[in-house]
Amino acid sequence: MIRIFEKGDRENTTDFGIGLLNPYSCIVHEEKNGDFSLSMEINKEDTLCEAERILLAPTPKNSVQKFRIYDTYQTVTGTKAVLARHIFYDLMDNFIEAAHPTNFTGKQAMERLFNGLQYESAITGSSNITMRNTAYWDMINPVDALIGEQDNSFVNRWGGTLNRDNRVFTINDESLTPINIIYGKNLEDLGLHADITEVVTRIMPTGIRADGQSVLKLPERYIDSPRIGDYVNPKIQHKHYSDIRVGENEGDYATEEEAFAAIRERAEAEFKAGIDLPKVSGMVSIIDLASTKEYANAKGLEKIIPFSPVRVWFQGDYVEAEMQAYDYNALSQRYENITIGMKERYIGETMETQLHQLAKKVDLISDAISSMKGV
Predict the structure, then answer these.
(1) Alpha-carbon dihedral of residues 98, 99, 102, 106, nearest 10 degrees?
(2) Which terminus of the chain has a smaller tally of CB atoms within 10 A, N or C?
(3) Which of 196, 373, 164, 180 has the alpha carbon at shortest distance from 281?
(4) Sign of CA dihedral 84, 152, 157, 340
(5) Helix (H), strand (E), coil (C) string for 118-136
């Protein structure tokens, strides 16, 4: 059931609004930390769907959500197309002149963002992220400040997963239960592919000597993956850990032997994180999936919570991936497509925005997946 409300209404999810719609199709599309939209086709004689009116539609998480219409047009097939964005995007109308959260936690940065708006918003947001970082938001749209592609956005500085529930949203560190997918030999039957282009099975890891400039190499030079024999040739790559250095400053290692131990541990962590496994990615069509022999082993995808981690079992071991986007049929209330992408592994020093936080641990950061358009 799709309901429609006037643009200025303080709509209630239990009300019927100004009418009930009977569309031919209604697809909700959401991407992790990105687009959340609705596309609908309805009879060309419809008079209710106008710009800025609000649609209420079922979604796979947080039940019924509100979408504000931003475009309508006649299609070549003679129907009326209706395009809407999640009510979260009302923030696009607002503006930040200057907001500079400096060495703030995610919670503090979120508060600073809202304090920097030109006018009070009906949209509210929060974060549980305790990591500290800095951003400079100058003359920027609040949505871009939160989830934009620029390095300065909240999700690129503090991380976390955006969860939108009508006019309330969070960007939190979340721990969701992984969904297991077990395959036979043919990954393509499920719309996925395994890419070995970036597989590494032998690492030459290096640090920095006491002079602060020379490269510190292990006596044995290389660290091998337990899976090195799974491929025709060793796949070799240099990994430089510039945060592992010999010296007398805070965080330095007192001797080369101590630094060697840290370098070995870091290289082994690369393999534990899956650098020696193929990248599994692609779009799973839930409709087409039902006809494949592997369907029984992937049926859990129908109940997956956006944006859950996924364990894709491959040759006796698993590769960690995650749901990156989905298309959800709001009429039948089931997924039509799910996009699965790898989690990217970053070891040691990487982006300046996470320099200190990443120096001593392995972080899993989502790989960007090509955006999908709603049907």
Answers:
(1) -160
(2) N
(3) 196
(4) positive
(5) CCCCCCEEECCCCCCECCC
- Mean local confidence (pLDDT), 107-126: 96
Rounded Cα–Cα distance for residues 201 and 319 (Å): 15
User: With 50 as the cut, is the pLDDT of residue 358 above it?
Assistant: no
**Mean pLDDT, the chain, whole residue set:** 82
For the chain, the C-alpha Rg in angstroms (whole number) is: 24
Instruction: Give the pLDDT confidence of 29-85 residue by residue, as tens digits.
Output: 999 999 999 999 999 999 999 999 999 999 998 889 999 999 999 999 899 999 999
Cβ neighbours of residue 374 closer than 8 Å, sequence gap 6 or more: 27, 28, 29, 37, 38, 39, 83, 327
In the structure encoding, which two tokens stand for residue 23, read together? Answer: 């569309």
Residue partners of 62: CB distance under 8 A and separation at least 6:
163, 164, 165, 166
Beta strand spans in 176-302 (E):
179-182, 192-195, 202-208, 215-217, 223-224, 236-245, 279-285
Structure tokens at 58: 């079922």
Q: How do beta strands 309-314 and 179-182 pair?
A: parallel
Calculated CA dihedral for residues 91, 96, 105, 131, nearest 10 degrees: 80
